[in-house]
Amino acid sequence: MNKLYIEGNKKLNGHVVISGSKNAALPILFMTILATEEIEIHNIPQVTDIKIAIKLLKYLGAKIKNKNKILYIDTSSMNIYNPPYHLTKKIRASIWMLSPLVTRFGKAKIFFPGGCDIGCRPIDLHLKGLVSLGVKIIKKDNYIIALADRPLQGKHIYIEKISVGATVTIMSAATLAKGLTIIENAAQEPEIVDVAKFLNTLGANITGAGSNKIYITGVSKLYGGYHKIIPDRIETGTFLIAAAISKGFIICNKTEPKYLTNVLKKLSESGANIKVGKNWIKLDMQKKMPKAVNISTSPYPGFPTDMQPQFTLLNSIAQGKSIIVENIFENRFVYTNELIRMGAKIKIKKNYIVCTGTSKLSSNNLFCHDLRGSATLILAGCIANGITVVNNIHHFKRGYESFMKKLNKLGANIKYI
Ligand code: EPZ
Protein backbone atom coordinates (compact mmCIF):
# COMPACT_ATOMS: atom_id res chain seq x y z
CA MET A 1 0.00 0.00 0.00
CA ASN A 2 2.64 2.49 -1.02
CA LYS A 3 0.46 4.19 -3.65
CA LEU A 4 -2.52 6.50 -3.62
CA TYR A 5 -5.35 6.74 -6.11
CA ILE A 6 -6.73 10.27 -6.25
CA GLU A 7 -9.83 11.39 -8.11
CA GLY A 8 -9.42 14.92 -9.43
CA ASN A 9 -11.61 17.99 -9.96
CA LYS A 10 -12.51 18.19 -6.28
CA LYS A 11 -13.42 21.22 -4.25
CA LEU A 12 -12.04 21.04 -0.71
CA ASN A 13 -14.33 22.70 1.83
CA GLY A 14 -15.09 22.38 5.52
CA HIS A 15 -13.50 22.09 8.94
CA VAL A 16 -10.23 20.43 9.89
CA VAL A 17 -8.63 19.89 13.30
CA ILE A 18 -4.90 20.58 13.32
CA SER A 19 -2.58 18.08 15.04
CA GLY A 20 0.42 18.73 17.27
CA SER A 21 3.60 20.00 15.66
CA LYS A 22 5.96 17.26 14.48
CA ASN A 23 8.94 19.62 14.54
CA ALA A 24 8.26 20.64 18.14
CA ALA A 25 7.44 17.12 19.34
CA LEU A 26 10.62 15.54 17.92
CA PRO A 27 13.19 17.62 19.85
CA ILE A 28 11.00 17.57 22.96
CA LEU A 29 10.88 13.76 22.92
CA PHE A 30 14.68 13.56 22.78
CA MET A 31 15.06 16.20 25.54
CA THR A 32 13.31 13.82 27.95
CA ILE A 33 16.71 12.07 28.13
CA LEU A 34 17.88 15.01 30.28
CA ALA A 35 15.32 14.34 33.04
CA THR A 36 15.05 11.41 35.40
CA GLU A 37 11.39 11.60 36.48
CA GLU A 38 8.17 10.82 34.61
CA ILE A 39 7.07 13.35 31.98
CA GLU A 40 3.59 13.60 30.46
CA ILE A 41 3.39 15.07 26.95
CA HIS A 42 0.05 15.86 25.26
CA ASN A 43 -0.93 16.53 21.64
CA ILE A 44 1.67 14.16 20.18
CA PRO A 45 1.09 13.83 16.40
CA GLN A 46 0.62 10.26 15.21
CA VAL A 47 3.16 10.31 12.39
CA THR A 48 5.99 7.99 11.38
CA ASP A 49 8.86 10.28 12.46
CA ILE A 50 7.42 10.35 15.98
CA LYS A 51 7.01 6.56 16.00
CA ILE A 52 10.70 6.23 15.11
CA ALA A 53 11.68 8.69 17.88
CA ILE A 54 9.69 6.60 20.38
CA LYS A 55 11.42 3.42 19.15
CA LEU A 56 14.79 5.10 19.60
CA LEU A 57 14.00 6.19 23.16
CA LYS A 58 12.74 2.69 24.02
CA TYR A 59 15.90 1.17 22.57
CA LEU A 60 17.95 3.41 24.88
CA GLY A 61 15.98 2.11 27.86
CA ALA A 62 13.13 4.61 28.33
CA LYS A 63 9.76 3.36 29.58
CA ILE A 64 7.01 4.86 27.43
CA LYS A 65 3.23 4.56 27.60
CA ASN A 66 1.26 5.90 24.64
CA LYS A 67 -2.43 6.68 25.18
CA ASN A 68 -4.66 8.89 22.97
CA LYS A 69 -1.86 11.17 21.74
CA ILE A 70 -0.45 11.42 25.28
CA LEU A 71 2.98 10.02 26.05
CA TYR A 72 4.15 9.13 29.54
CA ILE A 73 7.94 8.94 29.38
CA ASP A 74 10.26 7.79 32.12
CA THR A 75 13.94 7.77 31.16
CA SER A 76 15.24 7.12 34.70
CA SER A 77 16.36 3.58 33.83
CA MET A 78 17.99 4.61 30.54
CA ASN A 79 21.48 3.14 30.31
CA ILE A 80 22.44 3.05 26.62
CA TYR A 81 24.25 5.92 24.92
CA ASN A 82 24.63 4.53 21.38
CA PRO A 83 21.36 4.50 19.39
CA PRO A 84 21.26 1.98 16.51
CA TYR A 85 21.99 2.79 12.87
CA HIS A 86 18.77 1.32 11.41
CA LEU A 87 16.61 3.86 13.33
CA THR A 88 19.00 6.81 13.47
CA LYS A 89 19.37 6.92 9.67
CA LYS A 90 15.59 7.25 9.21
CA ILE A 91 15.12 10.71 10.73
CA ARG A 92 17.13 13.92 10.68
CA ALA A 93 15.87 14.68 14.19
CA SER A 94 17.97 11.82 15.59
CA ILE A 95 20.90 14.29 15.80
CA TRP A 96 19.04 15.80 18.77
CA MET A 97 19.93 12.72 20.84
CA LEU A 98 23.60 13.65 20.76
CA SER A 99 23.46 16.56 23.19
CA PRO A 100 21.21 14.99 25.90
CA LEU A 101 23.12 11.69 25.73
CA VAL A 102 26.56 13.26 26.18
CA THR A 103 25.17 15.56 28.88
CA ARG A 104 23.70 12.62 30.77
CA PHE A 105 26.33 9.91 30.27
CA GLY A 106 29.46 11.91 29.52
CA LYS A 107 29.66 9.98 26.27
CA ALA A 108 27.54 9.27 23.21
CA LYS A 109 28.00 7.44 19.95
CA ILE A 110 25.66 8.41 17.18
CA PHE A 111 25.41 7.67 13.46
CA PHE A 112 25.01 10.58 11.06
CA PRO A 113 21.27 11.31 10.79
CA GLY A 114 19.01 10.63 7.81
CA GLY A 115 15.81 12.48 6.84
CA CYS A 116 14.35 14.25 3.80
CA ASP A 117 16.63 14.60 0.80
CA ILE A 118 16.28 18.38 0.36
CA GLY A 119 19.93 19.37 0.54
CA CYS A 120 23.24 18.24 2.01
CA ARG A 121 22.16 19.22 5.56
CA PRO A 122 25.46 19.34 7.45
CA ILE A 123 25.62 19.14 11.27
CA ASP A 124 28.80 21.19 11.74
CA LEU A 125 27.00 23.92 13.72
CA HIS A 126 25.59 21.38 16.19
CA LEU A 127 29.07 19.97 16.73
CA LYS A 128 30.78 23.38 16.98
CA GLY A 129 28.27 24.43 19.63
CA LEU A 130 28.90 21.30 21.67
CA VAL A 131 32.67 21.73 21.39
CA SER A 132 32.30 25.31 22.72
CA LEU A 133 30.57 23.92 25.80
CA GLY A 134 33.40 21.45 26.43
CA VAL A 135 32.45 18.33 24.46
CA LYS A 136 35.20 16.44 22.62
CA ILE A 137 33.98 15.26 19.21
CA ILE A 138 35.60 12.40 17.29
CA LYS A 139 34.25 11.98 13.75
CA LYS A 140 34.46 8.58 12.06
CA ASP A 141 33.21 7.53 8.59
CA ASN A 142 29.51 7.31 9.44
CA TYR A 143 29.32 8.04 13.14
CA ILE A 144 30.40 10.51 15.81
CA ILE A 145 31.71 9.91 19.29
CA ALA A 146 31.12 12.67 21.83
CA LEU A 147 32.95 12.73 25.15
CA ALA A 148 32.64 15.15 28.06
CA ASP A 149 33.52 15.72 31.67
CA ARG A 150 30.28 16.66 33.37
CA PRO A 151 28.92 19.23 33.89
CA LEU A 152 29.57 21.06 30.63
CA GLN A 153 30.72 24.68 30.91
CA GLY A 154 28.43 27.60 29.88
CA LYS A 155 29.72 29.86 27.07
CA HIS A 156 28.84 32.81 24.83
CA ILE A 157 28.14 31.23 21.43
CA TYR A 158 27.44 32.97 18.13
CA ILE A 159 25.88 30.54 15.60
CA GLU A 160 27.29 31.48 12.19
CA LYS A 161 24.15 30.57 10.25
CA ILE A 162 20.62 30.57 11.65
CA SER A 163 19.81 26.92 12.33
CA VAL A 164 16.81 25.42 14.10
CA GLY A 165 18.67 22.19 14.73
CA ALA A 166 21.86 23.76 16.13
CA THR A 167 19.88 26.14 18.35
CA VAL A 168 18.06 23.17 19.92
CA THR A 169 21.30 21.21 20.35
CA ILE A 170 23.12 24.06 22.09
CA MET A 171 20.14 25.13 24.20
CA SER A 172 19.65 21.59 25.49
CA ALA A 173 23.35 21.04 26.22
CA ALA A 174 23.50 24.34 28.14
CA THR A 175 20.52 23.44 30.33
CA LEU A 176 22.61 21.34 32.72
CA ALA A 177 25.93 23.12 32.08
CA LYS A 178 27.71 25.17 34.71
CA GLY A 179 27.02 28.92 34.54
CA LEU A 180 25.51 31.08 31.81
CA THR A 181 25.28 30.26 28.11
CA ILE A 182 24.24 32.94 25.64
CA ILE A 183 23.23 31.86 22.14
CA GLU A 184 23.43 34.67 19.61
CA ASN A 185 21.93 34.52 16.12
CA ALA A 186 19.58 31.85 17.45
CA ALA A 187 16.68 30.50 15.38
CA GLN A 188 13.37 32.06 16.47
CA GLU A 189 10.90 29.42 15.30
CA PRO A 190 7.83 28.69 17.47
CA GLU A 191 9.20 25.14 17.83
CA ILE A 192 12.31 26.56 19.60
CA VAL A 193 10.03 28.46 21.98
CA ASP A 194 8.11 25.26 22.68
CA VAL A 195 11.32 23.32 23.44
CA ALA A 196 12.45 26.09 25.84
CA LYS A 197 9.02 26.14 27.51
CA PHE A 198 9.20 22.35 27.92
CA LEU A 199 12.69 22.46 29.44
CA ASN A 200 11.66 25.30 31.80
CA THR A 201 8.68 23.21 32.94
CA LEU A 202 11.17 20.54 33.98
CA GLY A 203 13.23 23.08 35.94
CA ALA A 204 15.56 24.66 33.37
CA ASN A 205 16.30 28.39 33.37
CA ILE A 206 15.97 29.63 29.78
CA THR A 207 14.93 33.13 28.70
CA GLY A 208 14.82 34.89 25.35
CA ALA A 209 13.63 31.93 23.24
CA GLY A 210 11.72 33.35 20.28
CA SER A 211 14.25 36.18 19.91
CA ASN A 212 17.71 35.92 18.32
CA LYS A 213 19.44 35.85 21.72
CA ILE A 214 18.76 33.04 24.19
CA TYR A 215 20.10 33.00 27.78
CA ILE A 216 20.46 29.69 29.58
CA THR A 217 21.59 29.56 33.19
CA GLY A 218 22.59 26.00 33.96
CA VAL A 219 20.72 24.08 36.66
CA SER A 220 21.83 20.91 38.43
CA LYS A 221 18.85 18.67 37.64
CA LEU A 222 15.68 18.41 35.54
CA TYR A 223 12.50 16.98 37.07
CA GLY A 224 9.26 15.48 35.74
CA GLY A 225 6.39 17.57 34.40
CA TYR A 226 3.50 18.09 31.99
CA HIS A 227 3.66 19.70 28.55
CA LYS A 228 1.30 20.18 25.60
CA ILE A 229 2.85 20.36 22.13
CA ILE A 230 1.96 23.46 20.04
CA PRO A 231 -0.20 23.11 16.89
CA ASP A 232 1.50 22.27 13.62
CA ARG A 233 1.83 25.50 11.62
CA ILE A 234 2.94 23.69 8.45
CA GLU A 235 0.00 21.26 8.55
CA THR A 236 -2.25 24.33 9.00
CA GLY A 237 -0.67 26.07 6.01
CA THR A 238 -0.99 22.93 3.88
CA PHE A 239 -4.75 22.72 4.55
CA LEU A 240 -5.18 26.44 3.82
CA ILE A 241 -3.53 25.82 0.44
CA ALA A 242 -5.87 22.84 -0.16
CA ALA A 243 -8.86 25.18 0.02
CA ALA A 244 -7.14 28.01 -1.85
CA ILE A 245 -6.25 25.88 -4.90
CA SER A 246 -9.76 24.45 -5.17
CA LYS A 247 -11.53 27.83 -4.86
CA GLY A 248 -13.01 26.55 -1.62
CA PHE A 249 -13.26 27.56 2.01
CA ILE A 250 -11.82 26.00 5.13
CA ILE A 251 -11.71 26.52 8.86
CA CYS A 252 -8.57 25.19 10.57
CA ASN A 253 -9.34 24.58 14.24
CA LYS A 254 -6.99 24.10 17.19
CA THR A 255 -4.23 26.04 15.48
CA GLU A 256 -2.23 29.18 16.30
CA PRO A 257 -2.72 32.01 13.75
CA LYS A 258 0.25 34.06 14.99
CA TYR A 259 2.68 31.35 13.82
CA LEU A 260 1.48 31.85 10.25
CA THR A 261 1.61 35.64 9.84
CA ASN A 262 3.69 35.57 6.64
CA VAL A 263 1.81 32.63 5.15
CA LEU A 264 -1.54 34.35 5.76
CA LYS A 265 -0.20 37.58 4.21
CA LYS A 266 0.70 35.71 1.03
CA LEU A 267 -2.67 33.95 0.93
CA SER A 268 -4.47 37.31 1.29
CA GLU A 269 -2.30 38.71 -1.48
CA SER A 270 -3.40 35.78 -3.66
CA GLY A 271 -7.04 36.79 -3.18
CA ALA A 272 -8.15 34.70 -0.19
CA ASN A 273 -10.47 36.21 2.37
CA ILE A 274 -8.93 35.37 5.74
CA LYS A 275 -10.33 35.67 9.24
CA VAL A 276 -8.61 34.54 12.40
CA GLY A 277 -9.75 33.87 15.95
CA LYS A 278 -7.99 32.78 19.10
CA ASN A 279 -7.23 29.27 17.85
CA TRP A 280 -8.74 29.13 14.35
CA ILE A 281 -8.17 30.42 10.83
CA LYS A 282 -10.86 30.68 8.16
CA LEU A 283 -9.94 30.99 4.51
CA ASP A 284 -12.53 31.65 1.82
CA MET A 285 -11.62 31.95 -1.86
CA GLN A 286 -15.20 33.01 -2.70
CA LYS A 287 -15.01 30.66 -5.68
CA LYS A 288 -12.23 32.73 -7.28
CA MET A 289 -8.97 31.48 -8.77
CA PRO A 290 -5.90 32.52 -6.76
CA LYS A 291 -3.57 35.23 -8.06
CA ALA A 292 0.15 34.43 -8.39
CA VAL A 293 2.36 35.56 -5.47
CA ASN A 294 6.14 35.84 -5.23
CA ILE A 295 7.76 33.86 -2.41
CA SER A 296 11.22 34.03 -0.87
CA THR A 297 11.97 31.63 1.99
CA SER A 298 13.91 32.67 5.10
CA PRO A 299 14.20 31.69 8.77
CA TYR A 300 11.26 32.53 11.07
CA PRO A 301 9.56 35.00 11.18
CA GLY A 302 10.22 34.95 7.40
CA PHE A 303 8.35 32.79 4.91
CA PRO A 304 8.88 29.10 5.85
CA THR A 305 10.77 26.81 3.49
CA ASP A 306 8.38 24.04 4.60
CA MET A 307 5.53 25.89 2.80
CA GLN A 308 7.48 26.55 -0.40
CA PRO A 309 6.24 23.47 -2.37
CA GLN A 310 2.58 24.07 -1.47
CA PHE A 311 2.80 27.70 -2.67
CA THR A 312 4.43 26.55 -5.90
CA LEU A 313 1.34 24.43 -6.50
CA LEU A 314 -0.88 27.44 -5.79
CA ASN A 315 1.18 29.51 -8.24
CA SER A 316 1.00 26.72 -10.86
CA ILE A 317 -2.77 27.17 -11.17
CA ALA A 318 -2.93 30.89 -10.30
CA GLN A 319 -3.48 33.86 -12.59
CA GLY A 320 -0.14 35.40 -13.51
CA LYS A 321 3.56 34.77 -13.20
CA SER A 322 5.57 34.33 -10.00
CA ILE A 323 9.09 33.83 -8.75
CA ILE A 324 9.74 31.44 -5.87
CA VAL A 325 13.16 31.70 -4.23
CA GLU A 326 14.47 28.96 -1.91
CA ASN A 327 17.12 30.31 0.46
CA ILE A 328 17.35 27.56 3.08
CA PHE A 329 17.88 24.21 1.32
CA GLU A 330 19.71 23.76 -1.99
CA ASN A 331 17.69 20.78 -3.28
CA ARG A 332 14.09 21.61 -2.48
CA PHE A 333 12.60 21.84 -5.99
CA VAL A 334 12.67 18.12 -6.88
CA TYR A 335 8.86 17.86 -6.65
CA THR A 336 8.50 20.50 -9.41
CA ASN A 337 9.43 17.87 -12.03
CA GLU A 338 6.25 16.00 -11.08
CA LEU A 339 4.13 19.17 -11.27
CA ILE A 340 5.65 19.86 -14.70
CA ARG A 341 4.51 16.36 -15.79
CA MET A 342 1.00 17.45 -14.74
CA GLY A 343 1.20 20.45 -17.04
CA ALA A 344 2.56 23.10 -14.65
CA LYS A 345 4.63 25.76 -16.40
CA ILE A 346 7.70 25.93 -14.19
CA LYS A 347 11.24 26.90 -15.18
CA ILE A 348 13.86 25.77 -12.69
CA LYS A 349 16.79 28.16 -12.28
CA LYS A 350 19.53 27.98 -9.63
CA ASN A 351 17.87 28.65 -6.28
CA TYR A 352 14.62 29.92 -7.71
CA ILE A 353 11.85 28.94 -10.09
CA VAL A 354 9.68 30.94 -12.43
CA CYS A 355 6.11 29.81 -12.54
CA THR A 356 3.42 30.81 -15.05
CA GLY A 357 -0.08 29.89 -13.98
CA THR A 358 -2.11 27.50 -16.10
CA SER A 359 -5.85 27.03 -15.66
CA LYS A 360 -5.77 23.24 -15.18
CA LEU A 361 -3.35 20.49 -14.23
CA SER A 362 -3.81 17.01 -15.67
CA SER A 363 -3.48 13.68 -13.89
CA ASN A 364 -0.34 11.55 -14.08
CA ASN A 365 1.60 8.78 -12.33
CA LEU A 366 3.60 10.75 -9.74
CA PHE A 367 6.57 9.95 -7.47
CA CYS A 368 7.22 11.56 -4.08
CA HIS A 369 10.74 12.41 -2.92
CA ASP A 370 10.24 14.25 0.37
CA LEU A 371 7.64 15.15 2.97
CA ARG A 372 6.31 18.57 1.89
CA GLY A 373 6.68 17.70 -1.80
CA SER A 374 4.53 14.61 -1.26
CA ALA A 375 1.72 16.59 0.42
CA THR A 376 1.88 19.02 -2.50
CA LEU A 377 1.52 16.25 -5.10
CA ILE A 378 -1.46 14.77 -3.24
CA LEU A 379 -3.18 18.18 -3.25
CA ALA A 380 -2.33 18.58 -6.94
CA GLY A 381 -4.04 15.23 -7.62
CA CYS A 382 -7.20 16.44 -5.86
CA ILE A 383 -7.68 19.37 -8.25
CA ALA A 384 -6.24 17.93 -11.51
CA ASN A 385 -8.33 16.56 -14.37
CA GLY A 386 -8.68 12.76 -14.14
CA ILE A 387 -7.21 10.11 -11.84
CA THR A 388 -3.76 10.68 -10.36
CA VAL A 389 -1.63 7.91 -8.87
CA VAL A 390 0.91 8.98 -6.26
CA ASN A 391 3.81 6.60 -5.47
CA ASN A 392 6.28 6.48 -2.53
CA ILE A 393 3.70 7.81 -0.13
CA HIS A 394 5.66 6.82 2.98
CA HIS A 395 7.01 10.39 2.78
CA PHE A 396 3.76 12.15 3.70
CA LYS A 397 3.13 9.76 6.58
CA ARG A 398 6.31 11.06 8.23
CA GLY A 399 4.73 14.41 8.98
CA TYR A 400 0.97 14.55 8.38
CA GLU A 401 -1.37 12.84 10.82
CA SER A 402 -4.44 11.22 9.14
CA PHE A 403 -3.79 13.32 6.02
CA MET A 404 -5.98 11.24 3.67
CA LYS A 405 -8.78 10.99 6.21
CA LYS A 406 -8.76 14.74 6.80
CA LEU A 407 -8.69 15.53 3.06
CA ASN A 408 -11.47 13.03 2.30
CA LYS A 409 -13.62 14.70 4.96
CA LEU A 410 -13.11 17.98 3.10
CA GLY A 411 -14.40 16.43 -0.13
CA ALA A 412 -11.39 14.65 -1.65
CA ASN A 413 -11.57 11.08 -2.91
CA ILE A 414 -8.23 9.46 -2.06
CA LYS A 415 -7.75 5.70 -1.63
CA TYR A 416 -4.84 3.38 -1.05
CA ILE A 417 -4.07 1.05 -3.93
C1 EPZ B 1 14.37 21.97 10.71
O1 EPZ B 1 15.42 21.30 10.04
C2 EPZ B 1 13.10 21.24 10.35
N1 EPZ B 1 13.22 19.83 10.73
C3 EPZ B 1 12.86 21.34 8.85
O2 EPZ B 1 11.61 20.75 8.60
C4 EPZ B 1 12.81 22.81 8.44
O3 EPZ B 1 12.70 22.88 7.04
C5 EPZ B 1 14.09 23.52 8.89
O4 EPZ B 1 14.28 23.34 10.32
C6 EPZ B 1 14.08 25.01 8.60
O5 EPZ B 1 12.95 25.60 9.17
C7 EPZ B 1 12.85 19.43 11.94
O6 EPZ B 1 12.46 20.23 12.78
C8 EPZ B 1 12.94 17.99 12.23
P1 EPZ B 1 18.22 24.08 10.03
P2 EPZ B 1 16.95 21.56 10.41
O7 EPZ B 1 19.27 23.57 10.92
O8 EPZ B 1 17.03 21.79 11.88
C9 EPZ B 1 22.17 24.74 7.44
C10 EPZ B 1 10.03 19.45 7.35
O9 EPZ B 1 9.59 19.36 6.18
N2 EPZ B 1 22.90 24.06 8.51
O10 EPZ B 1 17.44 25.27 10.48
O11 EPZ B 1 17.73 20.50 9.80
C11 EPZ B 1 21.23 23.82 6.68
O12 EPZ B 1 21.90 23.08 5.68
C12 EPZ B 1 11.47 19.81 7.56
O13 EPZ B 1 9.36 19.26 8.36
C13 EPZ B 1 24.29 24.03 8.47
O14 EPZ B 1 24.92 24.55 7.54
O15 EPZ B 1 17.19 22.92 9.65
C14 EPZ B 1 20.22 24.79 6.14
O16 EPZ B 1 20.73 25.40 4.97
C15 EPZ B 1 12.42 19.47 6.54
N3 EPZ B 1 24.95 23.37 9.47
C16 EPZ B 1 20.13 25.86 7.23
O17 EPZ B 1 21.33 25.73 8.00
C17 EPZ B 1 24.28 22.81 10.52
O18 EPZ B 1 24.96 22.24 11.40
C18 EPZ B 1 18.95 25.73 8.15
O19 EPZ B 1 18.84 24.39 8.63
C19 EPZ B 1 22.89 22.86 10.56
C20 EPZ B 1 22.21 23.50 9.54
Automatic annotation (TrEMBL):
The entry's keywords: Cell cycle, Cell division, Cell shape, Cell wall biogenesis/degradation, Cytoplasm, Peptidoglycan synthesis, Pyruvate, Transferase
Positions bound to phosphoenolpyruvate: 22-23
Active site: 116
Entry's Gene Ontology molecular function annotations: UDP-N-acetylglucosamine 1-carboxyvinyltransferase activity
Domain Enolpyruvate transferase, residue spans: 7-407
Keyword Transcription regulation applies: no
Protein name: UDP-N-acetylglucosamine 1-carboxyvinyltransferase
Organism: Buchnera aphidicola
